[in-house]
Design goal:
Helices cover 60% and strands 0% of the residues. Helix 2 crosses helix 3. The protein is mainly alpha-helical and 73 residues long. It has 3 helices and no strands.
Length: 73
């Protein structure tokens, strides 16, 4: 009975939800997958296409899932 109440009060999050939050944090704080921008007089990496950006985020999500899914020793 106590377990039922606990699941209502604070439902456990799936490992995919945790991996998604980790991916979002990394992507937002680092600009992961966006490519470099250019400033006046400087050249940098060309911005990625939307498809390349989506692929980079999916790869990051898979890496985060792998990290979250590892068992602690």
């Amino acid at each position: 009975m106590a377990e039922d109440i606990q699941s209502i009060i604070s439902p456990r999050r799936s490992s995919d939800e945790v991996a998604l939050d980790l991916m979002k944090f990394i992507a937002v704080t680092t600009g992961y997958g966006k490519g470099g921008g250019t400033a006046t007089g400087f050249t940098g990496k060309a911005a990625r296409t939307p498809e390349e950006y989506a692929d980079a985020l999916l790869q990051l999500f898979e890496r985060c899932r792998g990290i979250i899914g590892k068992e602690k020793p």
